[in-house]
Design a protein that fits this description.
about 300 residues, alpha/beta, Rossmann fold, N-(1-d-carboxylethyl)-l-norvaline Dehydrogenase, domain 2, 2 domains, 3-stranded mixed β-sheet, about 15% strand, globular
Length: about 300
Amino acid sequence: MTDSSNFTVAVLGLGAMGLPMATRLATRLDVRGFDISEERLALAREAGIETFGSAGEAAKGADGVLLAVRNGAQLEDALFGEAGIAPGLARGAVVILTSTVGTEAVAGASERLAESGVELVDAPLSGGPVRAGNGDLLVVVGAPPSALARARPVLDLLASTLSVVGDRAGDGQALKTVNQLLCGVHIAAAAEALALADALGLDRARTLDALTAGAANSFMLEDRGRRMLDAYDDGGAAVLSRLDIFVKDLGIVGDAARAAGLPTPVAAAAEQLFLVGRSMGLEAEDDSAVIRVLAPELRGTDLIV
């Protein structure tokens, strides 16, 4: 295992998740940070993190790079694009990918990095900013043992639950795809249930309390349900996970299912709700705002499906 006292990690992207992860890692490791936002860079400096003017500068010579991107195209660009970091990575370095981008993109990136002696750890994670800052994330990993050993100083600081699901880059993506199928369906089901309660004239808060006390409860009902109640207020819920993330992730679920020849009709129905939410301009809202697609009081007009 790598000696964490001498481990340097570049955190590329200091947003809602990146900054608390960088701050957590800085308690034990030498952390370099980069973000395209000067405001986020300033916050990182206030937290005692050394910042750089470009991703390449931050990553050059680092033992590890923690990378969070939106999709496979961004992964390709971050690593191999015009300003990509891959050429500056030292042989023996490890790239730790925390995003959900699908199996094919990760497998392809892993093969290209290996040509220059760099390993990729496929480590999509779950948990919000608070859990990231506390090292309380769920991380599912697909990586060869050698790559996993290199990434341990980072993963052990971030994860309270570290589940190694396979020894190939892409295995982590596969399990996260299954995870996101369930999460997306559970959020959509919670929205549908609470919208029905609203349509039936029930008190929303009392309904949620009753449901979460019984067999119908789930993590998403309890967590997103509370935030769905905030959708009835002018400000809505604080954005902890954007609605368009589930547009992307349920799209990945559909692609994976079609490639496997497996029907996923429930996931497809959930995806449609998030797509309608995006068409309503809710893409940057918290994903709990999907209830606005359904609830009569919030929708304002009849929904034709």
